[in-house]
Amino acid sequence: MTAAGQQDSASATRGAATFVKGLRLLQTIAALPGPARLKDIQRASALPRATLYRLLGALEGERFVVRDPLHGGYLLGPELARLGYQSRIQNDLPRGAREALVAIRDATGETVHLAVPRGDVMVYVDKVESLASVRMASMVGNQVHMHASAVGKAFLAALAPEALDRYAGRLALEPMTANTVTGLPALRAALETVRAQGYAVDDEENEPGIVCFGRALYGVDGQPLASVSVSVPRYRLGDDWAHRYAGPIRTACEAAGLLMSQPGHEDRPGRPG
Fold first, then answer.
1. Would the pTM of this model clear 0.70, i.e. be above it?
2. Intra-chain end-to-end CA distance of the chain, in Å
3. How far apart are the C-alpha atoms of 103 and 97, rounded to whole Å?
4. DSSP code for 147
5. Which of 76, 104, 135 is the last residue of a domain?
6. CA–CA separation, 87 and 43 (whole Å)
7. What total number of domains does the chain contain?
8. Cα dist from 178 to 143, 152, 206, whole Å
9. How far apart (Å, rounded) are the C-alpha atoms in residues 173 and 59?
């Protein structure tokens, strides 16, 4: 091995060791009664003071730990909470929601998706295919924009006002089709409609020829975790779409224990488009 190769290998080894030390430091802080004081962290971790300061600075910079403004100790930070939240969605919600997805597909005959938020988009984490020969072309892992999809609008409408404001300030609101809602006032008005009628409609806003109906899924704390939607080719929509598609979503989610009642969520017919 060349001298340069040996240096690269040694650097990679040191980086891995530092990474492990950072993970163990997080475990140490989690085990201490919070806010964890610096001297207690050093005693429990047995790290040299200079190493401890360096690791804490890096973890604080990435929001894995934060300092308590009142007591000066260290607490686990919001980034860890976000990762834990996403892990719970990935590992628990898809399995728990599968029964509801199949029930919706059986009731409607159409393709059903489960989507979770990832930054400014929704990502499909599960899908039950339509039994019809013509169906929506999608796959698990696909991303859809929040403002242009039923799963996205259902999720946004379920957020608390301050959380919605944070999202609204980040969304690009790009037009995906001629029907996409692109202005922030128009999007807020659309979300009010979602709250009033209890489900979101994507009226060919993400993909021409496809109409989707979506609802948010809530955790035990009443916060939105994900959304479920049913996707229907426009030519199969029919006049009784509110009964045929929006109704089964609520029924199946309630039966699976995945939808918590929210104030003002009454099923009232709206109008796609």
1. no
2. 66
3. 10
4. G
5. 76
6. 31
7. 2
8. 19, 18, 9
9. 33
